[in-house]
Structures are given as structure tokens and as C-alpha cells.
């Protein structure tokens, strides 16, 4: 069995999504070094963290957190790129599940009842083949043992890339492109809204505004990474 495994890995090498080093048999997605060295925010335990403060005065969310700090050219960016553009889908579900176990240890997230990913427009979904935020949400859902809702929040317009836009332009780009469908099943629930990377928070704000029109809901936010608070 070991020889077969070694031969398979020779043809289809398993590499770390952060540093491209070969993974050992017991390692998944990230090598042991990157598992311990990638810059975690620990915002899920902080009631006054910089990411949460981004939304103050903009949208009344309950809490906000991200697993990692995102730095241009860094390993976390490489992880996101592998997930978003290189088709390494298992990165999203693996890290989502890992983060879900962390969130269950937080007083701010342990009562979350449903996970909702930021949706892709159907045209982009067909082109890419998957929604990276949905993969993260599926991992969170599995760890937290709560449903993942991909039907209620919908992107109605295919927005242009946000990469080089200012905060105002990002908001203008997304403010009216989301809507909600049948949502009675979400009334009074604590919703966990999930994205891959949060920078200005414009996309999350636009999504949360729609969800908060549902009677009695509470919305918290998480992402795989954020640019906020990195020194």
C-alpha cells in the first residue's frame, strides 16, 4: 500500500497550498510548518477587533472575524489564489472546517444557526465551476453542525472585479446586486455570513443589508482572511 501511495504522489504530488512544499502522509492542504506559522488573527475571541470596527456605523452586525491576515505577496494570498483560481477546492472546505471548530469555542459564534456564503453570479459560477465562499461555508457548516443555505441570498448582477477600486467605488459596485428569496425559515435566526477575503467590507455590507431585512435575524461575519489590522 505504501508503494502504491508513493507512486501516486510521484505522478500527482500533494503540495502545501501556502508554500508549495511536498506534503507528508499525515498532512492535509497545509504543511505542519505553515499550519503553525500562517498569521492568524484570533479575532473570533476579541469583542473589539479591527475587522468588527470596520462595520461600525455602517451596518449593525453582531460580530466579525477572519482566520488569517492577508498580505499581498504572502503565503495567505497564495492559499486564496490556489482556492479561487487554481481549482484546489478542498482548500476551502478544509480550512472552513478547521475554522468552524475554532468558532465553536467563541462566545460570539457558538449560537450561530445557519451559514450563508456570499454568492457568485450564475455566469461567473459557470465559468469557475464553484463558489470559493460556498466551499468555506460548507466546511464551517460541517464543523459547527448547522445548515449551509445557498438559496436565500442571490447575486442578481455580475459585478466587475473589486481589486483596484477605492472603498467608495467598491460600495458603488455592489450596493444593489444582491437580493433575497423565500426567507421565512430564517426569521429570528443568527446567520453567519461567509466570504473568502474581506478588505473594505463593501461586499459583506451589501449582503448583510439584505439579510437584515428578515424579521428578527442577527448577522455575524467571517472570512478566511482579511487585510484589516495587519501591522
What labels describe this entry?
single chain, 231 residues, alpha/beta, Rossmann fold, 2 domains, 4-stranded parallel beta sheet, two-stranded antiparallel ribbon, 9 helices, 36% helix, globular
What does this structure look like?
With 231 residues, the chain is an alpha/beta fold. The chain has 2 domains: 1-37, no CATH class; 38-226, Rossmann fold. The protein has helices at residues 2-11, 32-37, 50-54, 75-84, 90-103, 122-128, 132-144, 167-174, 202-211, and strands spanning 63-69, 114-117, 153-155, 178-180, 190-198, 218-226. The strands form 2 sheets. It has a 4-stranded parallel sheet, with helices on both faces. A two-stranded antiparallel ribbon has the order 3-4. Helix 8 (167-174) packs parallel to helix 9. The longest helix has 14 residues, at 90-103.
How is the topology of this model organized?
Layout (H helix, E strand, L loop, with lengths): L1 H10 L20 H6 L12 H5 L8 E7 L5 H10 L5 H14 L10 E4 L4 H7 L3 H13 L8 E3 L11 H8 L3 E3 L9 E9 L3 H10 L6 E9 L5
Helix pairs in contact: 5-7, 8-9
Q: Mean of the pLDDT scores?
A: 90
The ordered H/E elements are HHHEHHEHHEHEEHE
CATH class of the largest domain: Alpha Beta
Count of DSSP strands: 6
Q: Which structural class is indicated by helix and strand composition?
A: alpha/beta
Task: Describe this structure in a few short sentences.
The strands form 2 sheets. Strands 1-6-5-2 form a 4-stranded parallel sheet, sandwiched between helices. A two-stranded antiparallel ribbon has the order 3-4. The protein contains 9 helices and 6 strands, in the order αααβααβααβαββαβ. The protein has helices spanning 2-11, 32-37, 50-54, 75-84, 90-103, 122-128, 132-144, 167-174, 202-211, and strands at 63-69, 114-117, 153-155, 178-180, 190-198, 218-226.
Amino acid at each position: 500500500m505504501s508503494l502504491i501511495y508513493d507512486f501516486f504522489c510521484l505522478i500527482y504530488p500533494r503540495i502545501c497550498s501556502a508554500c508549495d512544499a511536498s506534503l507528508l502522509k499525515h498532512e492535509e492542504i497545509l504543511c505542519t510548518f505553515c499550519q503553525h506559522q500562517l498569521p492568524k488573527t484570533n479575532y473570533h475571541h476579541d469583542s473589539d477587533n479591527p475587522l468588527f470596527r470596520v462595520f461600525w456605523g455602517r451596518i449593525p452586525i453582531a460580530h466579525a472575524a477572519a482566520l488569517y491576515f492577508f498580505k499581498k505577496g504572502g503565503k495567505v494570498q497564495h492559499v486564496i489564489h490556489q482556492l479561487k483560481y487554481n481549482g484546489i477546492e478542498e482548500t476551502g472546505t478544509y480550512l472552513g472546517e478547521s475554522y468552524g471548530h475554532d468558532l465553536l469555542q467563541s462566545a460570539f459564534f457558538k449560537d450561530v444557526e445557519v451559514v450563508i456564503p456570499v454568492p457568485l453570479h450564475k455566469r461567473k459560477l459557470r465559468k469557475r465551476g464553484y463558489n470559493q465562499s460556498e466551499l468555506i461555508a460548507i466546511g464551517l457548516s460541517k464543523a459547527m453542525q448547522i445548515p449551509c443555505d445557498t438559496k436565500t441570498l442571490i447575486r442578481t448582477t455580475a459585478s466587475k472585479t473589486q481589486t483596484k477600486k477605492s472603498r467608495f467605488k467598491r460600495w458603488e459596485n455592489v450596493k444593489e446586486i444582491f437580493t433575497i428569496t423565500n426567507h421565512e425559515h430564517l426569521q429570528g435566526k443568527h446567520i453567519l455570513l461567509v466570504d473568502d477575503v474581506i478588505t473594505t467590507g463593501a461586499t459583506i455590507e451589501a449582503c448583510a443589508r439584505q439579510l437584515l431585512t428578515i424579521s428578527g435575524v442577527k448577522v455575524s461575519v467571517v472570512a478566511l482572511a482579511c487585510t484589516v489590522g495587519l501591522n
